[in-house]
Amino acid sequence: MNWIKLNVDGARNHAGMISAGGVVRDHSGSWLCGFFANSGCGTVLQAEFWGLLLGLKMSIDAHYQHVLVESDSEVLVKLMNDGVDALHPLKSVINSCQALQRQFQRCEIKHIYREVNKVADVLSKIGLDSEIGMHFMMQPPPQVITILLDDSCETPCFRSIPCI
């Protein structure tokens, strides 16, 4: 069973513009494909869900069947795994993501810390400066090459925890 890993993230700037980014990697951590997308105006959570929606669609189009999705949004992971009530403002996009998730043989969604989601974070920020729409990439852009090398070398990443 060949699993791929899909990392997704969303971004929002001070003007309220949102974007999303994502990367698909194989079992060894090698880049398979990626994307960034400018989604117009919205909330950070909308940006996160656009990243998930576009990443799932991209993975379906590439015929992947076993997908591990990682996001640094605890809210996204909780809503995807626990469901959402009928009055939630993002119910339609959440339902769309859940419908896409069911198209895979296996698709798990889990939370990770932002420090280990750097490639998707950079891609989502690239989206803020791009034209509206999704931009698909078969090769990593220069902005993420160093991060990919650090990941492949298993360079440690430290998380700062403030003292109280």
Automatic annotation (TrEMBL):
Residues 1-129 form the RNase H type-1 domain. It comes from the Eukaryota. Gene3D superfamilies: Ribonuclease H-like superfamily/Ribonuclease H. Pfam families: RVT_3. Coiled coil: none annotated. GO terms for molecular function: nucleic acid binding; RNA-DNA hybrid ribonuclease activity. InterPro entries: RNase_H-like, RNase_H-like_dom_plant, RNaseH-like_sf, RNaseH_domain, RNaseH_sf. This is Putative ribonuclease H-like domain-containing protein. It comes from Rosa chinensis (China rose).
